[in-house]
């Protein structure tokens, strides 16, 4: 039995998991945890009256993903998100884009786990009571040993440790690869995630990266608490593109052959309730 209320989640994806898209996924199935696109803490702070534009209406299945590195701003943003009724916040520690690196957040934070811990501690001080979770990679550049990943996890054991860590099972290269290449070229290393989950049985982990079939998700769920699906989970990702670029319909027609993956999962014996 998973220790997560919604063990399977749809990954945060910029330009994909916007409020409209999340609403569509809820219609397809109500069972999944849905992550918003990464939203910078300053965007939340500067548009605090209007955060539904970025995150939609607060819904119990929604996790708002924050980007940023300043503990004070991240804590304030999380508090605003909480005050708007959202039930969970996630910190992006995996995005390798140049702009994000330039802002000292995303994947570069893996190199400075004490900054992530400071953010979590500051959130504690700012009365953020909703769960604050982390989404990271297995490593960055040559900091890619299992010891590095384990040290990262240990360093998060601050006064407010994250109740859930989602690991994208590949490292990223901070130089020379685009974000898209960084989602495809570094090889997936599921073993590293299984080993980490085994080493820290008191913590709750999800695995992410390359899950394309119900069978693969079922297998993952036998080894770890949660599984996050991105590109495939949103076969509807392509549908989203079709919404934005109607002319792309024909190029993206394969999606027509691929029924909603969330519905496939619903039917895949992952849940005891009949659908
Ligand atoms: C278009 C796109 C945008 C993404 N944006 C984010 C993001 O905002 N935050 C984040 O943590 N990961 C982001 N990711 C990475 C995904 O959350 C996920 O880790 C990655 O796609 C691997 O999972 P998958 O193989 O199931 O797609 C993005 C991925 C894609 C394809």
From TrEMBL:
One of its GO terms (biological process) is mRNA processing. The keyword Oxidoreductase applies. Transmembrane segments: none annotated. PROSITE patterns: UPF0034. It holds the Pfam family Dus. It comes from the Eukaryota. GO terms for molecular function: flavin adenine dinucleotide binding; tRNA binding; tRNA dihydrouridine synthase activity. PANTHER family: FMN-LINKED OXIDOREDUCTASES SUPERFAMILY PROTEIN (PTHR42907:SF1). This is DUS-like FMN-binding domain-containing protein. It comes from Umbelopsis ramanniana AG. The lineage of its organism: Eukaryota, Fungi, Fungi incertae sedis, Mucoromycota, Mucoromycotina.
